[in-house]
Sequence to fold (143 residues):
Amino acid sequence: MTRTALTVALLVAATSASGAVYKCTGPDGSLTFSDKPCPGQANEEVDVRSAEPTDRQREEASRVLERDRSMVEGSAARDRGDGPGAERSSRPSLSSGMTKAQVRERWGAPDFKSPTMWGYHDDPKATVTFDLNGMVTSAITGP
Fold:
């Protein structure tokens, strides 16, 4: 779908003087777009002018924008230490390459344990992943 949209966009830019874009169906059913009529088939001219978004599309875009704005503002507040979840930074930090013994020393015994993942269910919840040699690859804390 993205390739089709890109093709149409490029054709619109390339054919803005003539304005005609034709939708062609190949023998295998694939779609192509051209500024010339399709040989050997009925030509379907495509209107590629920009359409106004629907009310539903505008509402969805507004919701997504508000959600993203809220996430950014919340993250900035936590970084400053004055937003919800700011107190969650009470765990000492872990670094990639630390051993399981070092993690246990800093965070204590995990509530959940597998060969490549430890989980902590207290506040804040956290997950630590290890490589097959038992070295930390990531540590994620969250609500």
Remarks:
- Helices lie at 2-14, 55-80, 100-107.
